[in-house]
Amino acid sequence: MSIQELIWEIHMRLGNTSFYYAAIMTLWGFWRILKKRGVDSNYWGAIVIAQILILLQGALGVYLYFFTDFRLARQVHVLYGIVSALVLPAAFAYTRGNQERRDMVIYGAVFLVMSVLTARALMTAGMMLIFE
After folding, report:
1. Dihedral through CA 61, CA 66, CA 68, CA 70, nearest 10?
2. In the chain, fewer beta carbons within 10 Å around the N or the C end?
3. Could you tell me if residue 132 is inside a domain?
4. pLDDT in tens, 75-124
5. In angstroms, rounded to a whole number, what is the distance separating the alpha carbons of residues 22 and 29?
6. What's the rounded Cα separation, in Å, for the pair 114 and 128?
7. Predicted structure pTM score
8. pLDDT tens digits for 93-105?
């Protein structure tokens, strides 16, 4: 296996991981909303992990796009990646880092959107969710 194939494999697996992580964060966020809780330090830590995961995914995608022979079937895949990388910082800027229940609703909705974006990114890249 060449280094390019390995990076593609990691990119693909991180895409699946991003989808599942965003889905879990959505469920956790909505559970916290039902319990009438805001954003706490545990959830903040999980948000940071999500952003790092998306940025790592994006960095590998940029490498694959510009420095390898791998090509996308549909260019909208890049748009989904860019929006996914920007949605959490935008939510943080909008909420100004507050930790109230209203802000938890925003983060729960943001992770729902991220779940859809990552699922669509996988589909437009010609991949489906892998359950291996």
Report:
1. 60
2. C
3. no
4. 888 888 899 999 999 999 999 978 888 899 999 999 999 999 999 888 88
5. 10
6. 16
7. 0.87
8. 999 978 888 899 9
Instruction: Please check whether residue 131 lies inside any domain of the structure.
Output: no
- Looking at the chain, the whole-number percentage of residues with pLDDT higher than 70 is 94
pLDDT the model gives residue 132: 46
- Per the rule left: phi > 0, alpha: psi between -120 and 50, beta: everything else, 126 is left
C-alpha span between 13 and 7 (Å, rounded): 10
* The pair of three-digit structure tokens given for residue 32, joined into one six-digit string: 């916290």
Residue 84 lies in a domain: yes
**Contact partners, residue 10, CB within 8 Å, separation at least 6:** 60
Q: Tell me the residue range of the domain where 103 lies.
A: 3-124
The Cα diameter of the chain in Å comes to 50
- Say how far apart CA 25 and CA 30 lie, in whole Å: 9
- How many distinct structural domains can be found in the chain? 1
Copy the structure tokens of residue 130.
């892998």
